[in-house]
Amino acid sequence: MRKIKQWTAMGLATVMAMSLSACAGSKGGTSETTSAAETSKAAETTSAAASNTTSGEPVELKFSWWGGDSRHAATEEAIKAFTAKYPNIKVTPEYGAWTGWEEKQSLNILGGNAADVMQINWNWIDSYGQGGKSFANLEDYSDVLDLKQFSPESLELCKLDKKLMAVPISLTGRLFYWNKSAFDEVGVAIPTDLDSLNKAGEAFKAKDPDMYPLAVGEYDRMILMVYYLESKYGKNWVDEGQISYTEEEVKDGMDFITGLEQKHVIPTLATISGDMADSLDKNAKWIDGKYAGIFEWDSSASKFKKALEGSVNKPNQEFVLGDFIKMGNNNGGFTKISMAYAVSSSSKHPKEAAMLIDFLLNDEEGVKLVSTERGIPCSTEGLKILQDNKLGDPLTIEANTKVMGYSKFTLDSKFEHNDLKANPDGVYYKVFGKLSAGEIDSKQAASDLIKGVTDTLEN
């Protein structure tokens, strides 16, 4: 069973932190007027680069990814820049929101109809890799994809059957983010421990029964429960292919989640479902300050911030990064490879597909355009480009540094398996849905969760 080992994650985080510190005083790049001779020379260089890497024959690539509007816009701009550099390559984008995305893409991958270049979750390598047959071995294209920019440890995590199935884009972890304006309106402090979290629930209910300090869906509840268990008991959720927690301990976690509903800290899942929103960042209650907190990946928080700041009914709301809520004597939470780029084994143009990946992760123009829309880069060159030009969302940088320095636990590669996290038929959705609806108690929920996760681990 492949895992993100803590020494690997923290080692990468240390490299990032050291690099950030070293470049903190660097000056951003300035725009200068280029002479006609310089322009001509640049054009010749681009032409030479293209001839060295492509045949010049027309090539068509499909590139698929999920995300929010800002990621879509930035990636489309990067595609335009790539095709301007390589005019013989046409790139067709395919993108959407996360809901239903994995189900659709898994069918494409297993059916041999996947896009040439894919943004994938780390666990897709195991879940849909078919023993190393689904994705191209990117080591075969190291002449156009600079793999030296990634640590050997991070690349090792993306291998299957000794083949490099993908290259990591970034590392990520979950943090608490808050609508400070909503907390100020209610007149209560942003939570830092369980006691203050529960008091916030009481205060929000007294202010407005439709207001909650935190909102979490089914999968969010699973991650939050594991955060609670790790904080309290100090164990990885899974070790060596087996759940590390007893049924009684998992029941404790289920009681914790139920308690958050009972204390008006989080809305029931029926309430969230009734909001009729595709995702929480598009939920009117989040946008207008009724839901005042989220527990989210550092690489995904920007879409929540943008949605909140774009509120028409409540303009000028303040979105802030919070402290890790103290729930025990340990630092709960885990880090993981947030996402990676892979090339389909069915691609007719894998070399050009690898060139597109290199452009997005290592090329100055591509890196500047995409910035931190997919988190803080794992690529050494990509990170340096952002630092030298003082680019990137400050909140994402702050959050990534914070989570890498705090979270101490490892993530099992099957934690995000589709059998567990698929909506609505995954184990997490079924168990937490029934628990929230009162169809099962915490003991039964713990038993059902353990069985479902164990079955997945053993398959």
Please name the defining characteristics of this protein.
459 residues; alpha+beta; D-Maltodextrin-Binding Protein, domain 2; 2 domains; seven-stranded mixed sheet; 20 helices; disordered N terminus
Sequence-ordered SSE layout with sheet pairings:
Blueprint: H1 6-22, H2 36-53, E1 59-66, H3 69-85, E2 89-96, H4 101-110, E3 117-120, H5 124-128, H6 152-156, E4 159-160, E5 163-164, E6 167-179, H7 180-186, H8 194-207, H9 218-233, E7 238-239, E8 242-243, H10 247-262, H11 269-274, H12 284-287, E9 293-297, H13 301-309, E10 319-321, E11 335-343, H14 350-361, H15 364-370, H16 380-388, H17 394-406, H18 418-421, H19 427-437, H20 442-458
Parallel strand pairs: 1-2, 1-3
Antiparallel strand pairs: 3-11, 4-5, 6-9, 6-10, 6-11, 7-8
Helix pairs in contact: 3-15, 9-10, 9-19, 10-20, 19-20
